[in-house]
Design a protein that fits this description.
alpha/beta; isomerase; five-stranded parallel sheet; binds zinc ion; Rossmann fold; cytoplasm; binds D-altro-hept-2-ulose 7-phosphate; carbohydrate metabolism; SIS_GmhA/DiaA_subfam
């Protein structure tokens, strides 16, 4: 394969995954947008977490809620659990890395809040810990997941929502997660602030 072929391959695979994701998850993405909008309209807040590239996705989402997505509007309450290096390093240092998000959720989470987790494998221990902590706080969970759902899928409750991208490659799943995230921002703005 030439280098140009490699570029073409990635773009083609991305388009195919995004199409498959729309076909499989279109209705669930709408439901997730409504669930998040309802949470924000009822004084809830959104907590988000993930590891590696998915940590970037989590803080990407919360920054667009706190500041803005495409339009000028009031900031919305959202906290990324991936950005406080003192909290993260002390929890990992004093306890275990698995606890880095769970301990923050136990400190910050309320029953009206929603935890949004990003994972491509569904197997990251810190994400499993986060979901357990959210359930302990009676919070519901929106899981952006991938592959076969991993250990996360059976941990989710009926009151949670799972958006499992139908793909096996981490990069493709992350790219679909970003597209879903922008859909969620658009759906939230539409429901809270109406037509532009
Ligand atoms: O961004 C990438 C790969 O594209 C990596 O940083 C990736 O996010 C990390 O390996 C994560 O630790 C993977 O975690 P997960 O998606 O399995 O929960
Ligand atoms: Zn964005």
């Amino acid at each position: 394969m030439t280098l140009q072929d490699r570029v073409l391959f990635q773009f083609t695979a991305n388009a195919a995954t995004n199409h498959d994701t729309l076909m499989r998850l279109g209705d669930l993405i709408e439901a997730a947008g409504s669930r998040l909008a309802h949470c924000l309209l009822n004084d809830g807040k959104i907590l988000a977490c993930g590891n590696g590239g998915s940590a970037a996705q989590a803080q990407h989402f919360t920054s667009e809620l706190i500041n803005r997505y495409e339009r000028d509007r009031p900031g919305l309450p959202a906290i990324s659990l991936t950005t406080d290096s003192s909290a993260l390093t002390s929890i990992a240092n004093d306890y275990r890395f698995d606890e880095v998000f769970a301990k923050q959720i136990r400190a910050l989470g309320h029953a009206d809040d929603i935890l949004v987790v990003y994972t491509t494998s569904g197997n990251s221990a810190s994400i499993l810990g986060a979901v357990t902590a959210a359930h302990d706080r009676d919070m519901s969970v929106l899981a952006l997941n991938g592959r076969d759902g991993g250990a996360l899928a059976p941990l989710l409750r009926e009151t949670d929502l799972e958006l499992r991208v139908p793909a096996e490659v981490t990069a493709r799943i992350q790219e679909a997660h970003l597209l879903i995230t922008h859909c969620l921002c658009d759906l939230i703005d539409q429901q809270l602030f109406g037509e532009e």
